[in-house]
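[DERIVE C-ALPHA CELLS]
===
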Amino acid sequence: MGLPHAQPGQVINLLQHLEGVAPSKTTAIVKEDWFEVIRLRIRAGEAIPEHKTKGPITVQCLEGKVVFNVDQKDHTLSPNSWLYLKGGQKHSLKGIEDSLLLLTIVFQH
C-alpha cells in the first residue's frame, strides 16, 4: 500500500522528513484527477533523461542546485527558483548538488 497523501487543510513542511518517507526518496504529496504534487529528491550527478508531459508543470527548487534543459537551453534552479513549462515541452534535468524539488503536474482532460 502507498503512503497516505496530504489531506485538504493539512500543513506540510516540505523541507522536513515526511512521516513514513526516507529522506532520500521521492514521494507524491497530493494526487487528484486533475493534478499531482511531488516532492522530488535528486542527488548530485543524477540525471533524468529528456521527456515531456501532456499537461503543464511547475518546478520549485527548495534545496540544492539542478540544471533543467528545456528546448536545448540550460536553466539553473537553486533555492527559491521556480520554472513553468507548457504541456508537451521536452525537458531533462541533472542534479548539480543534492537537491529537493517541488513538482506540480497538471493533467489535461
